[in-house]
Amino acid sequence: MLLLPEYLLLADGPVREHGAVIANGQFADVDRAEALIERYPHLTPVRLPGKLIMPGFIDAHHHLTQSFGKALAFGEPSEIYRRIWVPLENCLDENLLYLSTKLAALEALRGGFTTVCDAGTRASGDATTIAEATQEVGIRCVLGLICNDLADDIDARERAAIVERARAHLARWAGQPLVHPSLAVSVPEAGSDGMLQTAAALCADAGAIFQTHANEHLAAVERSIVRRKMRPIEHLHYAGALGPQTLIAHATLVTPTELNLLRDTGTAVSYNPVASSWKGNAVAPAMQMAALGIRFGLGTDGTRSDAFRMLDAAETAQRLAFGLTTGDSSCGAGELWLDHALRGGADALHLNALTGDITVGKAADFLLIDIDVPEMRPSWNLQWELVRLANRSQIDAVFVAGRLRLWQGWPVDWDARALLREVDEAAAAVVACAPIQRVHSAAQFVAITPRVDHAAPQSANLAVDR
Question: Among 59, 74, 78, 189, who pairs with 217 as Cys (CB 3.0-4.6 Å)?
């Protein structure tokens, strides 16, 4: 294909009168439109007025097998994984694992993500099921395998088995076009120092990433201080688990010392702004990370797979948490957040040689965006406008590895409506039987809803409500 959009978003910014040639799943050529037409006379140029071609977004932190419980987390206090996610995932059989993953992957594509990084599931099923679902949907997936070893019943033999399973996982998916293996320890306190070090070292040797959640919630930070006399990121450094291969999800509660550790070791971070607003204790100091040269991408944490709303949340959270108090009216401007949602995310996942920008030789993971809409007119700064004004409804097409996967929000080669019908039934059954514990039950929400008895005087109702 020879595509000639009105705008092409390159690493240095948007350009006009440029195009791209797509061949064998890659960007085969990127140049001015006239030059491409001259070089490829056998290709029929596809002119796309009013359209933008941009790289697909990178979700640097996701939980693909938690999609059945999205709204269950609303209004809940922090550390919901203990009361919602672990109980739910423990009830997923192979079919439910497949359905949950496929639903999450479809949501991600619809939101403009062409790559998702799955942090690993606590379900007992094989990671192969997750890989199969993402491959069927056609999204690129960093596939995490959890290597926790601090359960009460784990002995030395079982620890060795975890390590062997980790080696097999890295080998099983090496070289796969859309699946990239990864190892994970859920939180530092769930892994022994030996396992933290071993998993990180295995990933370093394999060119993969090692994932963990750290410094997300105050409760976890305090547990680490009490038990280890160290904060979680300090604990990871002590265990030898920091480094360029390591990706830390959240890092919202970080000290200057921990920021220096991240910078000096080359450790990457997933900045998850929506997770902070929905269930967090703080906002990661992403602006300071950028100033220090700390590598970071943007992630959804499985909250809401909408890349444009994630961009808006990333900038807004920095303004509210830091910019307003310092008089910083730009907070990095549009370019910073686009860069970290694209190239920064690819770098954090060790996929920067493969995806993240429109460059010759890289995978043709890209979006076709309709910019001929009222929200984008008049246009004065396209990068700022993509961060603050663009929305998911403008995504006409999603391509992964040069293949059209979604057209106007729906798959072109499989029945997504049938999936949704199957999901409705399956999710209702598993949520009903899972030992989920919500702090705010449905009954509580009903109880605090204001009631008005139209047969009684309004003053009497107010007195009763008080």
Answer: 78
State the angle between helix axes of 156-173 and 127-137 in degrees (0 to 180), rounded to the nearest 10.
20
- Please compute Rg for the chain using Cα positions: 23
Structural tokens at position 454: 């139209």
What's the confidence (pLDDT) of residue 174? Answer: 86
Q: Nearest 5 degrees, angle CA 286-CA 387-CA 365? A: 95
CATH code of the domain containing 307: 3.20.20.140
pLDDT at 257 over 80: yes
The CA distance from 227 to 212, in Å, is: 18
Q: Please list, in sequence order, all residues whose beta carbon lies within 8 angstroms of the beta carbon of residue 348, skipping any fewer than 6 positions away.
A: 58, 60, 209, 247, 268, 269, 270, 295, 296, 297
Model confidence pLDDT, tens digit, residues 191-228: 999 999 999 999 999 999 999 999 999 999 999 999 99
Can you tell me whether residue 405 is helix, strand or coil?
Answer: strand
Q: Do 215 and 252 meet the contact criterion of CB atoms below 8 Å apart?
A: yes
Give the model's pLDDT for residue 442: 59
Give a yes or no: residue 265 inside a domain.
yes
Does residue 6 form part of some domain? no
Q: Which domain holds residue 147?
A: 57-348
CA 394 – CA 416 distance, rounded (Å): 20
- DSSP string for 91-143: T--HHHHHHHHHHHHHHHHHTTEEEEEE----SSS-HHHHHHHHHHHT-EEEE
- Listed in sequence order, the residues at least 6 apart from 153 whose beta carbon sits closer than 8 Å to its beta carbon are none
How many domains are contained in the chain?
1
Quote the pTM value: 0.92
Confidence of residue 349 (pLDDT cuts 50, 70, 90): very high
Residue percentage of the chain with pLDDT more than 70: 94
Domain assignment present for 121 = yes
293 Cβ neighbours under 8 A, 6+ residues apart: 263
Task: Specify which residues 407 forms β-bridges with.
Answer: 397, 410
Let me know if residue 207 belongs to a domain.
yes
Asked whether residue 456 carries a pLDDT value surpassing 70, the answer given is no
Measure Cα distances from 303 to 69, 74, 126 in Å: 10, 10, 24
